[in-house]
Write a structure and sequence with these properties.
Elements lengths: L26 H13 L9 H14 L3 E5 L4 H9 L7 E4 L6 H8 L3 E4 L11 H7 L4 E4 L11 H10 L3 E5 L7 E2 L2 E2 L6 E5 L12 E5 L2 H11 L23 H32 L5 E3 L13 E6 L9 H10 L4 E2 L10 H4 L20 H10 E5 L7 H20 L7
Parallel strand pairs: 2-3, 2-4, 4-5, 5-8
Antiparallel strand pairs: 1-9, 6-7, 8-9, 10-11, 11-13, 12-13
Helix pairs in contact: 1-8, 2-8, 3-4, 3-7, 8-12
The structure holds pyridoxal-5'-phosphate.
Length: about 425
Amino acid sequence: MNQHTDLAIHGGAKTVTRTFPWPIFDESEVQAVMQIVQSGAWGNPDCKGEVEAFEKEFAAYCGTRYAVSCVNGSVSLRLALIACGVKPGDEVIVPPYTFIATASTVIEANCVPVFVDIDPDTYNISPEAIKAAITERTRVIIPVHFGGQACDMDRIMDIARRHSLRVIEDAAHAHGAEYKGRKLGSIGDIGSFSFQSSKNLTSGEGGIVVTNDEQLYQMMASLRNVGRMEGGQWYDHYNPGCNYRITPIQAVLLSHQLKRLEEQTRTRNSNGLYLNKLLSTIDGVTPLPRGFGDSLHSYHLYIFKYDKTQFGGVPKDEFVAMLAAEGVPCFKGYPHPLYRQPLFQQKNFMCYAIPDEVDYSSVFCPVAEQACSEEAVWILQHAMLGTREDMESFARAIFKIQEAVRRVPTPAAL
Ligand SMILES: *Cc1c(COP(=O)(O)O)cnc(C)c1O
């Protein structure tokens, strides 16, 4: 007999029938790109013109003095690390619940990623765990504002200042989000953003760093443009950089997309608050609490904790498949914390100067493990741009699954 026949995964009607477009654009983006195409000025080796114009707009939006755009949000982390003056074997503290770039760029800077656990409430890096991991080799902390929720920046900056460490905010999820009234990315020494196609501000690919420090800015701008320096000649190369430039086509797309960002962020934020309220009425789903009250949250990911005991023992992956079938744009997230990647477990460090004694075989962060395997369910940012009715339909889809699996428990023997 077919179980749970009203569930969409078993052929029943979907709860959410609309789709959620991303990216969002209109004729103004099309015209702007067409103008560049028709001008024939497709490149921009000086990073002036449209590229510089966008950098100024983004820096102003974040409330920083400088911004340097580059090809993606991984390279932006690499530029930031190198500009911080790290040396081979230096340690960089990172969370394990994040995209690979947060840690792999540390290897690419000849440094050692030190994974410390996340906070069980916010899934952001734990300040206590940072403190416990500091050694005389530590140089940099990379907090990730996971899903668009601010890390505890006061405490992180305080720890950093006490130990003379640099802070690079990985704000790849956090365009437009705030911490106590300041834009994320503008609080540490450097903020790093991605414009990859899934991100809240996108040009398909791209990245940017922001800073208030003129020396860091000059170095990152030089590294981004084959080691050239402002005021230097075309064939004067001072630093070991590379060609990490974006094109004017990306820059004009970003300038137009940036005009939409504040309103989109406010929509996601208020939908997130509303969905929190709705989900609090369903047993076994617990939205991550808002760490800093009404600080603007960018909800690159709307995250809730799933408790299978309230869903007839259905494992998380199966629940997420059911929810996706109901039409909710969702994902089970990272299958395991970053330190489990072959890169770290097999020490595939190739040409990079990672000390031989570095060993990840016994690293274990219980909170991140639990988030990956059992708890975390992500609803994706473009869905958070829907209406209040859409949020209600997401909650209804979850409730429908709960009703179905409770009514007909999956027989263990079948
Ligand atoms: C997307 C992302 C990046 C950078 O990604 P790119 O694809 O290189 O632009 C860095 N950190 C986090 C947490 C990310 O999600």
